[in-house]
Amino acid sequence: MTAFLQQVVNGLASGSIYALIAVGYSMVYGVLELINFAHGDIFMLATFLTLTLILLGVPWPLAILLGILAGAILAMIVERFAYRPLRNADRIAPTITAVGAALIIQNVALATWGPQTQPFPLPFGSGLIQLGGVYITVLQLIIFGMAGICALALYLLVQLTPWGRAMRAIRDDPTTAELVGVPVNRIVPAVYAVGGGLGVIGGILFAAYYNAVYIGMGFTGTMNAFVAAVLGGIGSLKGAFIGGLLLGVMQALAIGYIASGFENTVAFVIMIVILVLKPRGLFALPTASRV
Amino acid sequence: MKWQTARSVLLAGAVAPSLMMGMALLAPAHAESLNFAVIGPMSGDNAVYGVALQRGTQLAAKQINAAGGVNGDQMELEFLDTQCQATQAASAAAKIAADPDVFAVIGDVCSSASLAAMPIFYRAGLTQVSGSSTSPKITEVVRDNGYDNFARVIPSDSQQAGKMVDLATKVLGKKRIAILYASDDFGQQIYGYQQLAIEASGAELVAAETYTPTQTKNFTPQLTNIASAKPDVLLIDGYYNDAGAAVSQLARSGLGDITIINSAGVDQADYIKLGGEATEGSYVFTYYNPGSPLEANRAFVQAFEAEYGEKPNEQAAYGYEIPFIYKLAIEQGATRETLAETVRGISFDGPTGTTRFDENGDVLGKSGAVMVVKDGQFVVDLDLTQAVNR
Questions:
Q1: Which residues does B238 contact at the CB level (< 8 Å), separation at least 6?
Q2: In a shared domain, residues B233 and B379
Q3: Domain carrying residue B176
Q4: Tens digits of residue pLDDT in A67-106
Q5: Is A252 an 8 Å CB contact of chain B?
Q6: Among A91, A43, A30, which residue's Cα sits nearest to residue A69?
Q7: Residue B75: which of B84, B64, B67, B83 has the closest Cα?
Q8: Closest partner residue to A3 among B47, B228, B273, by Cβ?
Q9: Which of B84, B181, B215, B217 best probes binding to A when mutated, by most A CB atoms within 10 angstroms?
Q10: Which residues of A touch B224 (CB under 8 A)?
Q11: Chain A contacts of B221, Cβ < 8 Å?
């Protein structure tokens, strides 16, 4: 039982990271129905930038803030040059430019920082709390806390602010939203910026939790975010968040109770089963399908 | 028009220096140079191994050339990056096999990459000597396919597996063993031999978990499983970056203060950098002891430190020996065609001891060393080294 709880706690920690990454990813999909393949690479580059700033002696809270800002700006740049010109094109076209943007960012990072995995210096100690035989690290508590705070802040932003209302309007119907005066070209970049920033928070926690910053973390992040978002019902923020948590716990339990080499196999099989039973995901958006 | 002129000027400017560079590169490549291809992971997550191999072989070639070359010919090395990947190794091997100027091959580092390149070199009639591929599968493949062109100067993991278990059970007196191994040719094979050794030792294998090298970053679920089996020692059969990440995640798995014995190859500074404080006191079994009192080793360590400003590791030391073994074979009259046969019959004294080969090209009579992380540095533990070689 202790081992099971330990696996669940550890799974929830990696799941919280997936959730943060998936929420930003799903938000973009919800608004534009675009699969943002560059999402992971944006936070990868921003995480490398944060690491470089910390190594240069910038105090870590400032370095993290600058990293988040850099991720938000990079997401807006990608939106402006790779997605906006194709907003009314066939849906496959922006998917291709997204892959193109991802490859460009990956190669810039590769040329700048090289292919080696680098440790992420932990500014806070790796303290350990024991709760009835289950170990929880201080870092895990920080991850749970950050995920909760970000989820709450995003919920308030989307539900209670004029910006959130405009975003929901665009999500429901972009043409009508524009007709009634919603400034689409201001709101959409902002959605990307918020999504990119959340991704960077996830990326930095990913780097700290696994003590690894590397080029491939972007692709790993994108894939996990994709699974989490589809699992929860793509486009739904609540779905992406819960999908991320589920994915983390499923992977941990797959390793714990099935076979350690089958981490992703098991996660994807479970995803297929859920999608067969609930094709639109666990928390599909209540909107009727567009014609 | 103007644009075209500008472009042709630019083109001429770009082409001229590269032509000159081409000529400069071609210049020493006439009949009096002896070309060797070196394959290994020069970039990617295992680049530390490839760079060590590169430094070791380069130092050897430099010393050989300064002392008059091989029968008067200058030794030239060409490095090809395989990133420890079978596909890249196969394409590098095909490229080398198509080049009639290559005399013989050094490498690869990773067993999976060597295994992919072996059939290609065999068909091309090229001699291949590896300094770091330790999988026991290589012995089987050489024997089953009659690959008489292959030899390796480092012992097979069938030997290392037994030594790691000996260190855990006989020397350190541990009874409950857990293993974390890489899911590639290297990891699966060494794990298989460790199972046999544990059975023979009377200790118990209480948990075994695997991971995908360079891809797995989250080792916590595996380590949590291992923790629930309450082992008193953990053997890690993997690479420095994976071992570093795994060890840094010990605390949150409830494995806090367990004794760790890593396989050879983890003795890289990056293991300590990635694993942090948790690596303190952990052991690495290796086939090279930089503090060995052999005269050949002292001279090598001194020359290596003078050249690169750091101590050589296992890949550098074994890589350093290969050009000298080729030199010795050629001086004994070997041609490109008879090189492998001559190499397999050779006896060579180098920094790692005396090298001789058996009928499968496996090296005979090498002993290991036990390193321990102390104050953030690798040091050789002399008592444990003696005990494990007894």
A1: B180, B181, B182, B187, B211, B213, B246, B262, B263, B266
A2: yes
A3: 158-286+369-389
A4: 999 999 999 999 999 988 988 888 888 889 999 999 999 9
A5: yes
A6: A43
A7: B64
A8: B228
A9: B217
A10: 3, 6-7, 10, 252, 256
A11: 7, 10-11, 251-256, 260, 263
Mutation choice for A interface testing from B84, B210, B224, B274 by most A CBs within 10 A? B224
Alpha-carbon gap, residue A101 to B201, rounded angstroms: 56
Which residues are CB-contacts of B100 (< 8 A; sequence separation ≥ 6)? none
The domain total for chain B is 2
pLDDT tens profile B280-314: 999 999 999 888 889 999 999 999 999 999 889 99
DSSP string, B187-243: HHHHHHHHHHHHHHHT-EEEEEEEE-TTT----HHHHHHHHHT--SEEEEES-HHHH
What's the half-sphere exposure (Cβ side, CA atoms, 13 Å) at A288?
Answer: 2
Q: Do both B214 and B254 map to the same domain?
A: yes
- Looking only at the bridges linking them, the beta strands covering B176-182 and B204-211 are parallel
**Which residues from chain B sit within 8 angstroms of residue A2, using beta carbons?**
228
Statement to judge: residues B109 and B195 lie in one domain: no
Report all structural domains of chain A as residue ranges with CATH numbers, in order of start. Answer: 2-277 (1.10.3470)
User: Would you call A11 an interface residue with chain B, using a CB distance cutoff of 8 Å?
Assistant: yes
Taking the Cβ of residue B52 and every Cβ of chain A, the question of whether any pair is shorter than 8 Å is answered with no
A113-136 pLDDT, tens digit per residue, is: 987 788 887 666 567 888 888 888
- Strand-pair category, B233-237 with B259-262: parallel
B254 close to A (CB below 8 A): yes
What ipTM score was computed for the predicted complex, to two decimals? Answer: 0.81
Please answer whether residues B171 and B238 qualify as being in contact, where contact means their C-beta atoms are separated by less than 8 angstroms.
no
Provide the token pair at A1. Answer: 């039982």
- The reply to whether B201 and B58 lie within a common domain is no
Distances, alpha carbon B145 to alpha carbons B125, B149, B189, B348, in Å: 14, 11, 19, 27
Cβ–Cβ contact A255 with B under 8 A:
yes
Q: Do B333 and B374 share a domain, yes or no?
A: no
| B45 contacts A116? CB cut-off 8 A | yes
What is the rounded (10 degree) CA torsion for A177, A183, A186, A188? 0
Shared domain check, B374 and B233: yes
